[in-house]
Specification:
By secondary structure, the protein is an alpha/beta fold. The protein contains 13 helices and 16 strands. It has helices spanning 2-87, 96-243, 247-338, 399-414, 431-435, 447-462, 493-500, 531-544, 593-596, 601-624, 636-640, 642-646, 664-678, and strands at residues 342-347, 363-364, 375-380, 383-388, 391-393, 418-425, 467-479, 482-485, 510-512, 518-520, 526-528, 547-548, 556-557, 560-571, 576-586, 650-657. Strands 1, 5, 6, 7, 8, 11, 14, 15 and 16 form a nine-stranded mixed beta sheet that branches. A hairpin with a 2-residue loop joins strand 3 (375-380) and strand 4. The longest helix is centred in the first third of the chain and has 148 residues, at 96-243. It is flat, with a radius of gyration of 52 Å. It starts with a helix and ends in a 23-residue tail after the last helix.
Length: 701
């Protein structure tokens, strides 16, 4: 346990480190954006100031030019006056001195004007220098802005590079798989060509054997005929010498001898032909041997390449598997730290009685990396509604596939945590099959039998470490807002009527103690020591549970079923005590009266079911909005589940969806409700290590 706690601490540190890096990156990006915005604002302000100063300088230059023009006009006028004065000097000598004085004064004014002009030109040059400096400052600001944008682009490119590497790994994996299939096909072709070459080789060997046999036979025939010719020649000589037979007989023998010689020559020709065929067959045999050797070498090379590809594929699959395990572990750790309710979605297969008039399916699964095995798309009237959950099981997922995903959560109950798993969905969507399944079938057992098997098997294996566990089970149903004890031994129909009518009897009251635990008074609690005992209790509860027939389901659950297993563990060596609770709940299905066709008692049941589920939705919406008041007391279902929804429990909801096109409206409502549940934060799970009290009443966490 210390190692587990230490690994949890390391995981939390790792998660915090990742979150810190992410936060620092976000802060750095935000700082860059702020500095960029400030630089842009400062640059805009400098542009405004520069434009204002340019306008002021232009106005001053215009005024100076106007003054210069006026002075020039004045100078022209004075010069004309001087000329007039000079012309009138001959007539009026007395005015000469006055004219000279006027000329001197005008000269002084002209000098002053020239000095003012020089001063204005100096001011203009000063303003031009200031304008150049402002332009240089503006250029430096633009360079700083470009550097900021470059840093931001580099950061964005780094993030995109990480995503591309992830996509490249997946593409490499798919390429390796395609190459593996191609090599496999080439190997099959090589084997086929090798088999064909071997067959040709065997045929050629058979032909060579036949040719050799024929050649030997021809040789034997030739030797035999040659011996016959010699024998005939000897006989001729013998007949000539001894008997002197007639010439006709001799001619006949000569003809026969010549015929035998012709036969021998023809057989020699056949022998030569057979020898040529034998040489050709030997050449073909050598070529076939060479081809078989090359094929064998190529086969060995292909086999080696396939082995390398298999090793690389196995390594890649191992890395992907380890990465997926790490992702799930970190994801679960993050969810536990956030305190969110985990939500799994499961789609049941299409049944023969479902509406098959629609050609296109109403449920699809996205194939992107982010949404694979976590996304589901619902199509209604041509519009797609995407949803993302912690896990999505398609219609071909087995009961074992579903249980593998929650096995670690069930294990938490033995570690001292409160665990709650409940199934939600419309009538006929597969909730009871998911939770209970068919206990008599090994492959079709539901989550409840499989979870109990794991609990007992793990508790037995932990006995070697000094742990001893005591387990207590109870089962109840909430029928028409009334609690029924499914394990009561003297449960008669009269008692049920009395309870429903409010008559005196067992009072199944829901109560919460100071430690946050919940129990039901007068409820039957059974000590269990083996899976066989629990299976018997489950069978008894299934026989007692309220079911009924509607137009939507032949065997519709008409009540909320709650199975609770309280676990008390003591380690004799460390004296550590843990108390865990496992709540497994099969909610009744939501249904519309227009579709279910409920009347009488079924109508009353439907109204009670829909009311309690509506209260559950109100609680979820209040938790999602983090309201101060959460209406747990509005129904017995929500009041019983209060520790699971608003406490320190590890809670998981299965939303079951029907692919029936006629139920797409109810499926959309279920998925929207599940998405709201997934966003609820109920608090960080807390381990129960307090000393067990003497009260044996069963707590619901």
């Amino acid at each position: 346990m210390e190692q587990i706690s230490e690994s949890n601490k390391r995981l939390r540190l790792c998660v915090r480190w990742f979150q810190g890096i992410e936060e620092s990156l976000i802060l750095e990006q935000e700082k860059l954006r702020i500095s960029l915005a400030a630089a842009e604002n400062k640059c805009a302000e400098m542009d405004m100031e520069r434009k204002n100063k340019e306008d002021e300088l232009n106005a001053a230059i215009g005024e100076l030019r106007q003054n210069c023009a006026l002075l020039q006009e004045k100078l022209t006028k004075e010069e004309s006056d001087k000329l007039d004065a000079i012309r009138s000097h001959n007539r009026e000598k007395e005015a000469r001195i006055v004219a000279e004085n006027v000329q001197a004064s005008l000269s002084e004014e002209l000098e002053k004007t020239r000095q003012e002009k020089l001063t204005a030109e100096q001011k203009v040059s000063t303003f031009e220098d200031m304008y150049k400096r402002l332009q240089e400052y503006n250029t430096s600001l633009q360079q700083y802005n470009s550097r900021m944008q470059t840093d931001l682009a580099t950061t964005t490119a780094t993030l995109q590079q990480v995503e591309k590497e992830k996509v490249a790994i997946l593409e490499t994996l798919s390429t390796l798989r395609g190459h593996y299939s191609t090599v496999k096909d080439q190997l099959a072709l090589s084997k086929a060509s090798q088999d064909e070459a071997m067959k040709q080789k065997e045929a050629l060997e058979n032909d060579v054997k036949c040719l050799r046999a024929e050649m030997q036979q021809v040789r034997d025939d030739r030797d035999r005929h040659f011996s016959q010719v010699q024998a005939l020649a000897a006989e001729i000589e013998k007949y000539k010498e001894s008997t002197g037979k007639s010439v006709a007989e001799l001619d006949r023998m000569m003809i026969k001898s010549s015929a035998l010689e012709e036969t021998c020559s023809s057989q020699k020709e056949q022998l030569q032909i057979l020898q040529h065929q034998l040489v050709a067959a030997n050449e073909k045999l050598k070529v076939a041997d060479l081809s078989a050797s090359e094929t064998r070498t190529e086969f060995e090379d292909q086999k080696r390449v396939i082995g390398e590809l298999k090793d690389r594929l196995a390594d890649a699959e191992l890395q992907i598997s380890e990465g997926e395990k790490l992702r799930k572990k970190l994801h679960n750790t993050i969810l536990e730290l956030k305190g969110n309710i985990r939500v799994f979605c499961r789609v049941r297969p299409l049944l023969p009685e479902d509406d098959s008039s629609s050609e296109s399916p109403v449920v699809s699964y996205p194939t992107s990396t982010e949404a694979r095995d976590r996304g589901i798309d619902l199509i209604q009237s041509g519009q797609k509604y995407p949803f993302i959950f912690d896990k999505v099981f398609s219609h071909d997922a087995s009961q074992n596939d579903v249980f593998v995903e929650i096995s670690q959560l069930v294990q938490s109950a033995l570690d001292g945590y409160k665990v709650c798993i409940f199934a939600y969905g419309q009538t006929g969507s597969g909730k009871t099959y998911t939770m209970m399944g068919r206990p008599e079938s090994t492959e079709q057992k539901g989550l409840i039998p499989r979870s109990l098997e794991q609990i007992f098997q793990t508790s037995q294996s932990l006995s070697a470490q000094g742990w001893k566990y005591k387990m207590q089970a109870s089962m109840l149903e909430i029928y028409n807002e009334t609690i029924r004890d499914l394990l009561s031994t003297n449960r008669t129909s009269l008692d049920m009527i009395r309870v429903e009518n409010g008559a005196p009897g067992k009072q199944y009251a829901i109560k919460h103690d100071a430690n946050g635990n919940t129990y039901v008074s007068d409820l039957t609690i059974v000590d269990v020591c083996s899976i066989k005992e629990v299976s018997s209790l489950l069978h008894q509860a299934a026989q007692s549970r309220s079911v009924g027939k509607t137009q939507m389901n032949e065997q519709s659950s008409r009540s909320h079923f709650v199975f609770t297993l309280r676990i008390s563990g003591v380690n004799e060596s460390t004296e550590q005590q843990v108390q865990g609770v496992l709540n497994l709940i099969d909610l009744a299905g939501s249904e519309r009266l227009s579709r279910s066709g409920a009347t009488g008692d079924r109508l009353k049941e439907t109204q009670a079911i829909n009311k309690s589920l509506s209260c559950l939705a109100d609680v979820i919406f209040a938790l999602a909005k983090k309201e101060d008041h959460v209406p747990f007391r509005n129904s017995k279902l929500t009041y019983l589940l209060q520790p699971c929804l608003g406490g320190d429990s590890k809670t998981l909801m299965f939303v079951n969806v029907s692919p029936d096109p006629s139920s797409v409206g109810e499926s959309l409502c279920s998925l929207r409700f599940a998405a709201r549940v997934n966003s609820c934060e109920i608090g960080i799970p807390r381990r129960q290590t307090t000393t067990r009290t003497s009260d044996s009443r069963l707590s619901y966490g």
